[in-house]
Design goal:
single chain, mainly alpha, globular
Length: about 120
């Protein structure tokens, strides 16, 4: 893995903290959590679709998708579960993780610990 890959992974990880704060603020602005999460995912899907168009990546055939093992489809479900947890557990004042003095470190710590633990199984 090149240094560029490490830098990209580091920046992507840093954006997770920004995402948490922005999602929390959107939840506060909309007044309810789930529509904020839907907006988040729709914007994410739009960015991925734009990337695919710009890179001219082909859409795989449905036959290939049907050949995937059943458990490979659970990634989207677990991603949604994480999104729901992040939006529901975010600070009610909308600050999320962006305010160091009032960060929601227990949620961060438990999320990271769960990720590390499951990754080690």
């Amino acid at each position: 893995m090149s240094w560029l890959s490490f830098a990209f992974a580091f920046v992507a990880g840093a954006f997770i903290t920004i995402q948490a704060g922005s999602n929390s603020q959107l939840k506060k602005s909309l007044g309810v959590p789930m529509p904020a999460l839907i907006v988040n995912y729709l914007l994410g899907i739009s960015c991925i679709a734009l990337y695919m168009l710009l890179k001219r990546e082909p859409v795989p055939a449905m036959e290939r998708a049907a050949e995937a093992p059943w458990w490979s489809w659970t990634g989207g479900m677990f991603g949604a579960l994480y999104g729901v947890a992040a939006v529901l557990l975010a600070r009610p004042d909308g600050s999320g993780h962006s305010d160091r003095a009032r960060c929601h470190w227990p949620t961060d710590l438990l999320s990271a610990a769960g990720s590390f633990r499951l990754g080690g199984i």
